[in-house]
Structure formats: C-alpha cells, structure tokens
Specification:
The structure is a homodimer. Helix content of chain A is 24%, strand content 23%. In chain A, strands 1, 2, 3, 4, 5, 6 and 7 form a 7-stranded mixed β-sheet that branches. In chain A, strands 12, 13, 14, 15, 16 and 17 form a 6-stranded mixed β-sheet that branches. In chain A, helix 3 packs antiparallel against helix 5. The interface between A and B is large, with 95 and 96 residues.
C-alpha cells in the first residue's frame, strides 16, 4: 500500500478533545420518525437532561443528573403524538413549547433499559434534553416554575450548575452537555425566521427550526426560506480557528493574552473564520491581525466543539515565515500582549495548569507562565508543539 | 528542535483548494473606520465586483469584470459618509440599501493604484462587491434596474454568469468571488433578526448585521441579541465534513453517488457537522449514516470555502474499522449507492475528470468511473489517498 503509515504519521490514534466523544448515537435519520420518538420519549428507561438558563441539572460537580419522563411529563406531554407535518399545520405562534431535543441512544446500556429502532437494527437507552427555564414571556412559564419547584423538593441534592465555573464534568457527560447546550441556545436565541421575521417552530426533534406556512390556521405571508437551497433554519455552528504558531527556527511558540485573563495567563491565538476563507487562511489572517506575525505552512491538528455558545474550535499548527516574526499589536485591539516563548519555559508551565476560573494550581510559582488546562484544545496544541510525541497518546484528556 | 520535520511530514507546503487563496488583505480591523472606507470607496483605482442573483459580472468565463466607483455611484452614493453609530441611529426599516461589501486590498497593485491605511502601514488597491439585483420589494429596485441597463450598454461584452455552470474562474478571482458570494447571500437571505424578528442593518462594511435600537427615530422593542455574548448578527458559515475513507486493509477507497449526478459519477461522502460534534465525530457519524461503514482513525487534510451558499468544507481522511466495512444504505436515503473502489480503478479515473455540469472528458470510456475535478476538495482527498505523494505538491489546483 502506497500510503502505509500515512495515517499513523501524524497523530497516532488521534486526539479526542474535551466536549467531543459523546457516548450517544444521534440516530439523526429518525428525527422525523415521530412514532419512534413518541415511544422513546415515554419509555421508563429514557432519561432527560434538564437545562435552566443553559446550566445543566447536576448531581455532583462531575456528573449530570438525568430524570425519567414521569418527572417532566407535566411540562411537555407528548409533542410527538401527531406527525411533524400535522404539527406544522397546527402551528400557532402564541403557544410556546419548551425546547426538547432528542440527543440519541446509549447502545451500551443493558437490554432491560433499551428500546429498539423501528427496523430493529439499533437498540439503546434514549436521552433527551429539556429546557425548563421559566422565561416570563413564554406561555408555559408558570408550568416551568412549578416543575422547577417540584424537582428541587424531590431531588434536594441536585442543582443547576454553571459549566465552566462550578462543574468539572466527566468526558461522556461533557460531550452530552455540549450538544444539548448548543442546540438549546440556538433554539432559544433564534426563535424568529431570519428570512421573513416570523416566529419559527422547533422541528426534527429539536435540531432544526421551520418557518410554518400557517399560523393559527391562517396562511401567513410567504417566506423566502421555504424555497430553494438554504440553511437558515438549520442550527448554526460557528467555525473558529485556534493555533499554535512555531517560530521559523523551531525553538519558540507564539502565545497571547487577553486583558480579562488572570495574571501571567497566556494561550494560543484564536478567532472566527470568515465567509469565503479556508481554515488555513483564517489561521494566517488571525495571527497577522492579532500579533503582526506572518504564518506560512499550516496543518490542521484536531477539533473541539465549544458550546459557549456554538463554536467549532479547529486546532491548527503553523510556522512563522523567517523575517516576519516581529510582534505588532497595532492592528487589532483583541490582545493585551503576544510573545514568543521558548519551549523550555512552556514545558515547565504545562506541569502546572488549572482552569481559567480557578486559582493557580499547587506548585505554581508566582510570576511563572500560566497555561490553559487539558480540557482546552489550546493545551493539546501547545503539547503537540513543545512535547512532540506526547500528543500522540489516544487518551481523551 | 524536537519537532523538526513535524510539519513537513504531512502535506509539505500544504494544499490550497479552489475558492481559497484570496489575493486580498481583508483589513478586517478597518471595517468600522468609515473615514478610511469612504476614501477607499471613492478612490479612482478602486474596483467593484457586481453580483446579480449571486451571479458575478464577468468579462470572460475565467475572469471577473471590475468596475470603477463612477459606474456604480448612482446606486450607492457614499454609505460611509457618517459614522456607523450615526448610521445605526438613523436606521429606517423602509429604506433599503444594496449589499455593499469591502473585500480588502490588493497589496501587490502598483503604487499609483493604491491607497494607504490611516496609519500608513498598508497600501493597496481596494475592492468592494455590490449586489445590483433589482429585488422588486426593495426600495432601490428601480435604480438598480436602471444601472443594470446602463452597464449592459457601456460594457456589451460583460455578462452576469453562473459560477458552476458558465464560469471557470482563475484561482484569484474564484477566491474573491467566494467571499463576495457568501457574504452577499447571507445579507440578502437573512435580513431579519433571529432574536426578535425585526429588520436588521448591514454594518462592518457588509460583514455583520446589527439590530438597531431605533427605527425611523422611534425606539422599537428591546432585542435580546443586543445583550451578552451572541453571534446571531454574524454571518453564518456552516462547517461540513467531506472524507476519503480507506478500507482497513489499505487497498480500497469508499465512494458514494447521489441520484441526481451523471451516470458513473462517484465522490467522497460528505455532510454537515452538527452542534456539539468534533470534526472527527462528524466524519464517523456521516459515513456510518450514509454507508453503514464504521470509521476509526480520522485526520484532517485541508479545507475549502464552498460559497453555495456558505459552507466550509473540511476535508478528512479516515480508516475503516476491520470487520465493520459492509455497505448498508438503509439508515439514510441520502445516497443512491456507495461502494469500495480499488486504488487502481480510481487512479485511472483521476486521469479523466470534468465538472459536474460538463459532459464526460476526452478519453473517457463509457462505463468507467467518473470523479470530481481538481477544483473540488473531493478530488484532492482522493488523490491524497490513492496517489500518495502527489497531494504534497503546493500547487493550488
């Protein structure tokens, strides 16, 4: 085979970044099969992840809490009772529904907890997420408030916790939460059609929004989004680039810092990709804008979903062009500082990392470089550059 | 250096796919500098790319036409005359403006054609794109119709041509068109705020849309998009994955075909990334959904902007898991067929490719495999897999 080893050359078994690696099979092709969804929703083994203002209900700082259907049925009844077509035709913009998302099935669950797909090919325990936030302007607000109070009585040890401050979720739960959070946020913040300004309706088990042709049985104005190829009713995921840049002599790495970060904290440069750009171009543009450094070769390392609110972090490694490595911060006010760091200093700092919202880690000496923890793709990129082989490990964290 | 050769191992100087590689510096940080934009707009050397229903004005099938300010000033006047803040405060939703985008500067232009940035650091010839489509429901419709007729009189050899059917743009022009098309399409198809349903206004030189606080001087209802971290007024770019999958024994590549494609045409599998997924996970999910094959290791190869309408194609190469390579099309109706092809058959087909809308290329034998042309990232991925070293070339096409 001409390419023997081609895949092994780079990252071995690959890097799986935090927030990726969901244990669930999304079964995307069953999202319009309301008969399956209806069965899955009400099955005694099915579990619901609750979100309040995007914070998940958690049983411990590292573990999400999952409730059965009977705990939430007062709020949602069964939205899959009629077909999606019938639901679209019955759409009434004054009646609001909490965002409910079918996350998928855990195929490793014991068969007693599993349900089968209609073709009997796949079996697993079903998971949904449900937004229980009692938004005062939505019609189900009182029901949500009442359910929240029941839940806090029935589960006194469970709490809605903020992801990057109070939680340190295990990998599986972090990945499940990432999908639930991104999709919920999109449903909640984009309830109007960008094409015509009318209210839209959550469809495809929470993964799309449709602009219905009727509102309360009355034909509303025609929406251009209903014609031709378009994506405006699909959830958005904003690609962003994050990159470890190596000096042309191969001895230093470029890191920057934002003003709001803790003292001495630095990370890789990052920014949103623009329309009409490749990832490689976005890497070069962002580095040049933020630091003045010109980047030549770029390779893509790995990626990380970043559900705050809905980014895809695309991790890259690039090489600076000789003679174009001087730092210049005058273009873009994004960074407070950017600096070339020798590999040795960075290696030392990698031994003592902690979260952005935590204090410095044990063993940290005041004044030393601080870097993002392993749950950040920035850490993986920095490792790949300064430690070489270490990034080849297949471990998730 | 511990990582000597790390970057050279994979793609040499890198693959630059068609639609990427723009010759322009976007100068993103000057998009709110209306004094600079105003000067750039009206400079005699500045050039405008015109779009009608997203088709660009072209002088030949491989070359875009660019017009000077004097040719378009009747339609746009100078939108940068007042500051962006003042423009936002003067917003009136009944007055429409054609989509005008500052694409950037060509720093290689002769100094006689160049203007300088306010800090005198960068000089180049400025490029804008302008949507001249006479949408009947917009207030400038008649002006646009009249300008279209003037242009066709003054430039009888120029024509608005459809990108993937009538054009075969050179690399630089393809990349410039990609940005203009994606951003114009987004401005035109998403004129309403997804957060509150009100009309938005194009800002940041065409690269963002704001939901103004006032409409015709009257305070409108509060829009939630004006608070906190959000992206709903940023243009959308939808990440999608496209992947060449190698059989576990390293001798075959997995290709699929859609019903609407020409006979014998096959390509790599592809699909949109979902919220909360990494690129690597999206590759595995899409391949499994569409073909039933389970993919293990995934590496990311290169990327391509795909402005139809606003995707980012992320090219990957993956390896099938031994024993899980049987084709099954029953999950997802996306593909008409999927098949493992031996490298030799694919190598032969690579010698005779043509566009999706063209007939079979010269030398093609009826019944033989047909593959996408070099302008498609699919072609580059297939090459990378079956030809090995060839993909290391730094050539753009």
């Amino acid at each position: 085979m001409a390419d023997e080893g081609f895949l092994t050359k780079k990252f071995g078994e690959g890097v799986e970044n935090y927030y990726s690696g969901s244990p669930l099979n999304r079964l995307a092709f069953l999202r319009t099969n309301y008969s399956y969804l209806s069965t899955a929703l009400q099955h005694p083994s099915t579990r619901f992840l609750l979100l309040k203002n995007l914070d998940p209900l958690a049983s411990t700082p590292s573990t999400l809490a999952f409730l059965p259907y009977t705990d939430v049925s007062n709020l949602i009844a069964n939205p899959y009772e009629v077909s999606e077509k019938a639901a679209l035709e019955a759409f009434t913009s004054t009646i609001d529904h909490p965002v409910l998302i079918f996350l998928g099935i855990d195929e490793s669950a014991p068969s007693s907890d599993s349900i089968s797909t209609p073709d009997n090919k796949y079996t697993g325990q079903a998971y949904f997420s449900l937004d229980i936030t009692p938004y005062p302007h939505l019609s189900y607000s009182l029901k949500a408030t009442s359910l929240l109070s029941t839940i806090s009585q029935n589960y006194p040890s469970h709490e809605f916790k903020t992801a990057r401050k109070d939680l340190n979720l295990n990998n599986d739960h972090a990945a499940m939460y990432a999908s639930a959070r991104s999709l919920t946020n999109w449903n909640v913040t984009a309830p109007y059609c960008a094409g015509c300004g009318q209210k839209t309706m959550s469809v495809h088990a929470g993964t799309k929004r449709a602009c219905p042709p009727l509102d309360g049985g009355v034909e509303t104005r025609k929406c251009p989004s209903r014609e031709g190829v378009h994506n405006i009713n699909f959830p958005r995921t904003d690609p962003s680039v994050i990159m470890a840049i190596i000096s042309s002599d191969g001895t230093k790495i470029l890191l920057g810092r934002q003003k709001r970060w803790p003292k001495y904290w630095h990370s890789t440069l990052a920014g949103f990709l623009e329309p009409g750009e490749s990832i490689e171009e976005a890497v070069r543009r962002e580095v040049w804008e933020e630091s003045g450094v010109t980047v030549g070769r770029v390779i893509i390392h790995s990626s990380q979903p970043w559900p705050f609110p809905a980014s895809l972090m695309i991790g890259a490694i690039g090489e600076a062009v000789p003679g174009k490595e001087e730092i210049y911060l005058g273009n873009d006010p994004e960074l407070e500082g950017a600096k070339w760091f020798g590999f040795e200093e960075v290696k030392e700092a990698l031994a003592f990392t902690s979260g952005l919202y935590d204090g410095p880690p044990e063993g940290y000496k005041e004044g030393g470089l601080r870097l993002p923890p392993k749950t950040a793709i920035a850490n993986q990129l920095i490792r790949a550059v300064v430690l070489g082989g270490v990034h080849l490990a297949s471990s998730k964290i």
